[in-house]
Structure formats: C-alpha cells, structure tokens
Amino acid sequence: MAVGIPSPTDSKSTALGSESPPSPAVATKIGEAKSGEESALRPLALSPFSRANTYELYAANGSKKLLRLDFSSARYEILDAQGQSTSGTFAEDVSEPGTYVFANPRIASGTTAARFRVTPGAVVGAFPFEKPWSNPTSYPVVPFVAANDFVTEAASLDGDYNRFGIGLNSNGTAESQVVPLRISAGGTVLEMCFDAAIYRVSQCPAASKRSYAVTPATYGVWTATSSSPADLLQFRMARVNGQNVWLSGGWTDTAPDTHVFRVGLRSTADWAAMRYVGAANDQTWGNNTLGFLSATRADLVSEGAPTTDQELPITPPPSTAPAGIWGLDGADRFLVMRNAALAVVLGARGTAQQGYIQVNLFKENASIYRLAATSGARPELRLDMVGRSYTLKDPSGETLAGTFAPDPAEPGTYVFASPRVTSLANTARFKVVDNVIAGGFPFGVTQSATPAYAVQPFVGARAMEMTASGIEGVYNRFGIDVSPTVSSSNIQQFRIFNNGTGLVRCMNNTIYRIELCPSGDLQHWTIDLSAAVAPGSIRMVETANPTNYAYLSVARLAGQNIFLIAGKSLNDPTQAVFRIGLSESSAWPAGVGHGLATTGSWGRVQVYADHSTRAVLLPDGTTSNTYNPLSAMTADGPSGMRAIYGTNGTYFTMQGAKIFALVGANNASTGGYLQLSLMD
What we know:
Blueprint: E1 16-17, E2 54-59, E3 63-70, E4 75-79, E5 85-92, E6 99-102, E7 115-119, E8 122-128, E9 141-147, E10 159-169, E11 174-184, E12 189-193, E13 197-198, E14 209-216, E15 221-227, E16 230-240, E17 243-252, E18 255-266, E19 274-280, E20 284-290, E21 294-300, E22 308-315, E23 326-328, E24 334-338, E25 342-347, E26 357-362, E27 366-373, E28 380-384, E29 389-393, E30 399-406, E31 414-416, E32 429-433, E33 436-444, E34 453-461, H1 468-471, E35 473-482, E36 487-497, E37 502-506, E38 522-528, E39 538-542, E40 549-557, E41 560-568, E42 576-583, E43 591-597, E44 602-607, E45 611-617, E46 623-629, E47 631-632, E48 641-646, E49 649-656, E50 659-664, E51 674-679
C-alpha cells in the first residue's frame, strides 16, 4: 500500500509521496541558512541564565532563536539573532509531571498548548512565536525543538536519515517536504533524494539524487554544498536522548518569501509500541501512543476542556521506501517517523493536511500511579507499558512485581498476572485514561487474621492536585466500611471551601444537597495541605474531634476532580475504609466504561440517560448481564446522583471525571458493595 500521495503528474504510484527535485532556479530555497543567522547571539555574560540551560531553538514558524531556562527561578528567555527577546515564567503541570507550561502575555487566557518537556540534550515543546508576514502581528502556538548537545565529529554524522519539514510561504500557503538522505564517508558526503515519490536513498532515481560535500562551520553547524545544481544548506545534528536528530530552518536571502522547519531522524525498521508527548502546529498538545496497527493521540486543546482522542490506523511502507516512514490514517493523509527520542507526524503532500507538523518527545515507558483501594490499601503502582511489567509498593515497604498483558477481547484493558489470583477467571485488570487508572488487584484482605487475598477495586493517578484553590468545590461522595462482621455504606455530599482549608459534609441519613442539609447534621473539618505523609496526600481533621483524622488525595481528569480516601479505621485495624468523591454536576453523559466491583467481578458498563447495563465476568468464570433503571433523586438531593430501586435492593450511582460509581444502600443486604468503572 502506498503511504502518501504522489503528485498528479507522477507515475510512481507504488512509492511514498514526496516532492519533485527543485529546478536550479529555486534550488536556493533548499538551503536553510540565512546570511548571518548562525552568528553568535547576545553574549551569555549578559544573561542571568547558566550556559548549561541555553539551547539553540528551531521553531515551526521557520525561525531560529535561543532559549534559556532557569529552573531555580522557573524563568525562561527566548532571543533572536538581533537580540530581541521575550521572557516569563513557567510552572509544572500537576496533571502531567515533567511537562511545564509557559506563561506569556502572547498566550490567550486558558490556552495550554504552550508547554515543554526536557530530555538529555534538548527541550521539545511549543510557544507563541510570531506568524510570518502576519499583519497585524499574531502569535500562534507552534512546535519547537531546542538543543544544546551537538555532533561535532564528522564521523558521528554517518547514517541513513528521514527528514520531515514544512515550508510557509508569504502568500499564505504551506507545504510539506519528505526527504530521505544519507551521510557517509566519515561525515563528508551527503546524498538527498528529491523525488515526487519517497524512495530509499539506495533506490533513488539518479535524476532525483543530489550529492553535497559536508564541511564543519561554527557553533556545531555543518555546511553542505552541491555544485550540480548549485546549492548550499546548513544544519545541526543534535544529540537528543542519545539519538542523532537533524535540525535546520529559517530562510535564505535569495528566497525570503519561504520560511522552513526541518527535523530528521535516523531511519529504523524497529517499530515497538512507544509513547510520546508533544505539540502540533494546529495549536494542540497531546499524548501519542504509536503501535504496529494504530496510533492514538489524546489532544488537550484548552484548559478545562476535555481531551479529544483520535485513533488512526498505521500502515507499513512499501519495499522501495525507507523503513522508518509509516503511513498514518487509512487514506494516507499523514506520515510518521520516530526513534527513541522523537516522533514526528507530517501532513502528506497533495492533501488538505500538507503543512501540518507534529513534534513529540519520547515519554518514559514507566508511569507511577498512587492508588486508593477498597481494601484500604494505598500502594504505589509502577507500570512499564512497553515492557508490560508492574511493581506494586506498599507504604510498609512490601513490594510485588509481575507482568500484565492486553485483553484481546477488550481493547484498552490489561490483565495483571499474579500468583495471588487462584480463581478460574482472572478479574485483576486495569484501564488507563490520561492521568487516571482504575481497575482491580489481589490486595491483602484487611479483615482476615491470616494472609488472604481478594481482587478489589482501586482508583489512582500519576499526579495529585495540591493547590488550595484546585481542591475547592462541591463533591458527591460514596463510601464503604468493611469489617470482619459488618459492612456499611454512606452516601453524602460535601463541600471544600475557604481557599481549600475547610470541609463540611452532611451526615443526615437522607441524601441532601449540602446547602439544604439541616444545620445540626453538618460535620466540619479542617484541611492542611502542608501536613502530607506521602506525595499527593492532604490531611483533614474533624474540628469537633481532633483525634479523628484522615488523609485524602485529589486527582483530576477531564477538568473535574476525584476525591479519594483509603485506609484502615483508627479504632479497628481490621476494618477497611474507602471513600470516593466526584465533582457535583447536573451533566449525565452516556458512555461505555469498564471496571471492578467489590465482589471481584469485572464488567463492561453502558450508561444511558435513564438506565445502565453491565456485562459481567465473575471470578468463577461465569458471566451475567444486569439492567438497572435510573431514577432521579428527590428535589433535595444532588443533581449528580441517580437511584436504582431494583428487585435485588437499592443502589445509588454518580458520574464525574470519567468515573461511573455504584454503591449499595446502607442496609444489611447491600451495604459495603461498591462498583467503580473508568469510562472510555
């Protein structure tokens, strides 16, 4: 299958779409060095930033600048060759550890695509750079790659590369460029294939191949010169996370009406599943998972808005094309290349997507989640999504390790392998959506006097909200207490207020909205964000009874909060305590999710406006299906809850932050039952 769209006049339909070789008249547009642009910028002695945190920046608006970062003061500065600069502060995104958000007056309120991540030798991100030829001047957020570690030995340049790039023209049009290239002879010879189809350099038609002599310039810059036709270009070879990355951009004095941005990666046939994070020049920031069959990108468009997920099929290249360029989308609208440093997506030539580029930085395979389980456990879970392994570490120091595998019958669900699971069917599973994970694991049974294990639900996150204003709000709360002799449920609404320092909840057996709760049934707590015993934990103490306290955490997903408490009762260490709170909202979205119940059953839940269904796998290997009609709460009740009055008892449900929760009413038959599902 072809990957890319050849030009209409090209007859080589079996090869990847690229570009025609330039005529001698326009050959200077290929050379991306503007006269003087590689000259030294403002002396570092005049800047408060250290040399180690200074980077040569190449931006997708076709400009080259200098980026300086100071992590001690969380400040940055971006300068151009004329010494003009813009500066400001940056802060880590609590929902995406390792990602930092730029603050700049050019950024419209709420825009979040202006971010960056750091890796050895480079910074990859997006910033509001000036749009070329805009009048009045505008500042769209576009990707950049900034590096401070460069190849300076010619022999280290050698290798086959694929180079993606875009060109921005003064008439408002944009172009895509794909150029396979080879550097050989100890870094002294550069061959590039400029053809309307994308060929490997070894199979490039002679008329489309151009050879250059490579010589070192200054400041890590290399100059490549061709005599037939006459052409000159300059580039840097950055070392990004140990990988060679070609960087070039700018414009030439002879072709000032075209600004270009080029990124090149070594060609590789290795295509293991990997995750990346980065930006596109449509002003989005997202997480990319690239696999053998498909690529999934979760885009964050603006603060508070939900992420938009898109899954596109991936197609391998034909035999004549470089092994490292794959087609993305069944219509071959995009091309993708990647290595252990970057993944770059380009809009294919001849399509409406030409001129689109996306630059993503490799994301550490392993993610650490802090869990809250209905067993009362509060462990740390480390997942290696590429190696398919996990490590579970309890606060006591006990560590468990194992593997997990995808469930082929339920894409997106993974099954834990553990010797603790002895049932016929293994319901120890999990799903991940952005920052949040939910599922079940064979935790120790709190109520057992001797070691015993049972698969129990958990919810966790990679990062917790730790700002006072960030935890404020009204929450609906489901809780269960399970002891050796009795299980109970509690269903309440509460509010965190006073800049995150106070909490009030309704203790009445009737489920009231917090503002309608009888004053005598209000229980008051104080919150101290500074009294943490573990990362992400917040201490809350009952005002009237300071000996009664708990540690909570607040995760955030889809612009909403998830309040979590898990532990053992202060009065009875054999009693497990679990609480989950979701932000109050009148919205009741329909959707599909998966999750576990305290009975150990794993199920697929389908939520509708007036009912829900659940297809269940039980630990004994049997399956069943349930249908639950949903009834609105009373006029005094929370708008974000629904009731189920079924033949098997009364239950309550709530939604928020992509969590669907169901709890049994507080009585002998349903008390202590809880079901947690993470919605797709």
